[in-house]
Amino acid sequence: MTSIDADVVELALLLPRWQAEALEEAAEKRGLTAGQMLRKLIAATLKNIEPVTA
Q: pTM for the whole thing?
């Protein structure tokens, strides 16, 4: 992870080409970018998980 600021990090994501293309196509059909779609998928997946506190 690369820290952008105190609240945002950048993640590198390696996908097979076919998955990246399918992601872009699915996002476009919904009027989203691939990044927006990934953020929505991650948020939906993590919404019921309690955050880890140090």
A: 0.74
